[in-house]
Amino acid sequence: QVQLVESGGGLVQAGGSRRLSCVVSGSINSINAVGWYRQAPGKQRELVAGLTSGGSTNYADSVKGRFTISRDNAKNKVYLQMNSLKPEDTAVYYCNADIQPWYGSSPRLYWGQGTQVTVSS
Questions:
Q1: Of the four listed, 34, 47, 83, 101, which is most buried by Cβ atoms within 10 Å?
Q2: Per residue in 18-36, pLDDT tens?
Q3: What is the CA radius of gyration of the chain?
Q4: Residues 20, 115: contact at Cβ < 8 Å?
Q5: How far is Cα 58 from Cα 67, in angstroms, rounded to an integer?
Q6: pLDDT digits (tens, 9 = 90+) for 65-116
Q7: Which of 40, 35, 13 lies closest to 24 in space, CA to CA?
Q8: Strand 10-13 and strand 115-120: pairing?
């Protein structure tokens, strides 16, 4: 069973920084693309940042230059460094990963349970 668990959320003042972590555990043969999404109250879940296994990244326009996604393949961890936070960054942040559970299986997308980030003005 594959599990993704996020951590690092909390309350931060505007202009501050926060680093989110996501650890992937369980039956894992390979982890392909990973990403961070967020969902604010009353809004749809949106992509924040994505990172392929080859190292290519993409970011939402609203976070470009402020957020950085990275991964530690040896530890099966994914990070989101968030700087210059704004109140509009307040949301539940979710980690996802495209994972092949065992050799020969089809990759599928797994999600974490989310971690709340609240940015006060």
A1: 34
A2: 999 999 999 899 999 999 9
A3: 14
A4: yes
A5: 11
A6: 999 999 999 999 999 999 999 999 999 999 999 999 988 889 999 999 999 9
A7: 35
A8: parallel
